[in-house]
Amino acid sequence: MPITEFSVAGVSPGATQRLRLVIDRLPDGQDLAFPAVVARGRAPGKTLLVTGAVHGDEYEGPVAIQDVFAALDPETMRGTFVGVPVTNGPAFAAATREGGWDHQNLARIFPGRRDGTPSERIAHAYATHLLTQVDLLLDMHSGGTAYAIHPLAGYQLRPGDLGRIQRAAAMAFGLDLVWGTGGLPGRSLSAAGERGLPAIYVEMPGEGRCRPDDRATAARGIRRVLAFLGILEDVAPADPPRYLVEMEATGSGHLQADHPSPTSGLFVPAVQVWDRVARGQSLGEVRDPDGTVLAEVPAARDGRVLFLRTLPRVVSGDALAFVLAIAEDAGR
Q1: Cis amide prior to 111 (ω within 30 degrees)
Q2: Nearest Cα to 228, choosing from 301, 168, 164, 141?
Q3: Which range marks the domain in which residue 24 is found?
C-alpha cells in the first residue's frame, strides 16, 4: 500500500492488520517502505504509535513491538496500537546506524523532504503520514552495536500540557531513570513537538543484542504506555522512577557529543555502565595496536556512566562515554 493511502481509521474496529507502507523505490529496485502492524480496538480511544530501528543496529525495540502486537486482543482494547518495527529499512538491512544508500543519520534530519534522499523521504513520510494520525509517539532506541547504555525513558522539555503529558508517559514506561532534556532539532521527537504531539523515547541496553530480559522489559513498558492512554486495562502501573532528571540546556541529551576520542586506536574502558565516577577519574585509555597508550580519557564531571563505548576500535572524535551528573538521592 502506498503510505499516502494509509489510514488508521481504515482498519476495521476489533481487527488487526499487517501492512507494508511504500514510500519510494531504492536504486536496486526494492521498495523503500515501512512494515507496519495495527491493532484497532473494538471500542474507540486514543492511538499510540511505537517505532523501532530508526537506527538500523538497534534491535530491542523492533522485537518488543512484534511481541506486543502478537499478544494484543483488539476485542478488549479501547483505542489503537500502531507499530513500525523497522523505520529505517536501508540501515536495518546493512545492520548499521545510518542508511546504506545515503549514509545519513535518520535521527538528525526530521522532518525530512518529500523529494530528498532515501533517509529524508523516510523522515518526511514518518512526520507527514504517521505522526498526524496518532495521540502519542513512543520511539524505541538502544545503544546499537557499538555502545551500551543504562535503560532510560526520555522526552524533550516542553511547556504546558504537552510537557506534563510527556513526563507522565515517560514515567509510565517503568524504568528507574527518566530524563527530560532541552532537545535538538532533527529528531523524531522534534517533529512531533512541532505538531503539538506528545512524544517520548526509550533507550535499551544495546550492544547489538536482544536479550530476553531486555526484550521483556521493553514489551512491558510499551504495554504500560498503552494503559497510560487508556487503550489497555489490567496492566499493573510502574513504581515511580528512582531518578527523574531534567536538563533545560539545548543539546543536553546529545550522547554522542560527550567525551570524544582524542585519537584513533583501541578504546579499553576502565569502567562499566552505571558506575559512579568522579571528575578526573579514568574512564579508560586509547591504545595503539602495538599496545602503546596513546591517550587517557578522564571523566569530565562527577556522575554516573550512562553511555559507554564497548566496540573497541575507535576513530578520532567517536564518543567514548556520557557521564550523567546525577544526585544519588534524586527521585527518592
Answers
A1: yes
A2: 168
A3: 3-247
